[in-house]
Design a protein that fits this description.
572 residues, Jelly Rolls, Rossmann fold, 20 strands, disordered N terminus
Amino acid sequence: MRLKLSILTIFGLMMGALHSSAQIKWFNPAEYDRPCIQQQGFQSELGNSYHRLPDRFKGRVPTLVWQKSTNSSGLAIHFYTDAPVIHVRYTVSGDLNSPDMSTIGTSGCDLRYIDPNGIWRDLAMNYSFADTIKLSYHGLDTSLQHEYRLYLPLYNTVEWLEIGVPVKSSFKVAAPREEKPIVIYGTSICQGGNTSRAGNSWTNLLSQYLDWPVVNFGFDGSGKMEKEVIEAIREVKASVYVLDNLYNLTEFPVQEKVDRIVRAIHILKERRPETPVVIAGHTGHNSPSHAAQRDSSNKAVATALDIAVKEGLKDVYLLSFEGLGMDSEGSTVEGVHLNDYGMMELAKVYTDYLRSLLVIPDGGEGITHEVTQRRMPQYYDWQERHTEILRENSTNPPKSVILGDSIIHYWGGASLGDHGIDTWNERFAPLSYKNLGMAWDNIENILWRVNHGEIDGFEAETVLVEAGSNNTDDNSDEEIVEGVVFLLKSIRLHQPKSRIKYIAILPCYPDEDRIRVLNKKLKKAVLKAGFEYCDPGPALLAKRGAINRKYFVDDAHPNKEGYRLIIDDILK
């Protein structure tokens, strides 16, 4: 009887395991028919592999660089799901840990979640490290299809990977981002040593803080500004190149350091003369034992930059860490490699510095800080519409644009509704306007789109801006006024020659009185800041100041007749 029970028990466990497995659907990014690996410099050649350099560089770059380039540091997979649990399983070719890094830091993936309002959230995981590494994340929000970003191992080579969700859950992998990436070439500190987990590597933190793609060319034990490596990374079309190599140049005399830095600048500028190059200084982490190395390296950088300026090389910058205050006890593991706190410090310094080069003004927190949104993915995909706009602008640059929320998105049938298609075709289309409305956008979401390329690459005659109505639920009048003015000033940085006109918040029920008062404050601030202002809303009101419902499809959005009533004032 015991034998029979044991056999039945084993059979039951096997069937249970099969049943459990059948309840999970698995996705292998390497088998996708389109690219889905984020922050990969050679996407067209590498496809969905987890390496950082294509095979053609094997034998051309130093052996150690090639070996480390097979590590997936900086690579990520972005996806959307409404699953209550997410599983990740994968294999790696190297040792699971190293003497100075934990198993999770060496070989672990790291999953981060972005809520519908663009706020980053951390996730706790269950893990098992064996021949097949297994991670799982439980208790996730199933109310919407949320955005997740999976950061791949910093110090190991991924051979095979799958992401699993329950069969009834949705799952969609995001296409690689369209912005030109920040390309960073550096040492083990750049690769991620010795942080506790992948998402806390400073280049990944930089990508999170700026919400911008960052390509990581950090190579442990190398990163010595080798000519062959510089020639390789310059093939990647970057928004800015960062060379953070000084820690691994300490073996060379000052003149050799100078020569390598000048040569690197020349190689990059020969191929990409318009792309800024940033040379990072040596921090030393205020450690007395590193003072001589720090001073020697920083002297070499200063000399090299003087040579570059005299030779007429433009847009070459020094990021000096003098006065940063990073200390060997609080910021590092052993006086050199950064712990999580040091990684955060370094990422913040780079974030502040690179904002000016990327034309992303620092608005601090709240309504003047740019964020994404994903409030209603069941109606349209916000990121996909953004990507579509970037692609269309590159192939067919508009003469003028109108930015806004759902009031603009619904106007002209731009992937949502066609409430005002007649007036759009009659009045906007002949003037070659492009509809840049996105439903449920707040001011901070439009700001993100402005800072991520939607009005770059062309010179607009006019930029019309409708923003603020969706902020009335969560923000004060004063915050909305500050946000609108900050948004308009940010637009001016991207379109310095354009006519910029703000469209006042349209009336909606039951907030007609508040909006009337708010618009007076907006008018004063907008005009004072040097921008144009119009308020077409009164045409939509009845005699006593309430909205005239015959001009609305609901209590907020104009219908065909409503759009026709406001068009003249907007285009005046």
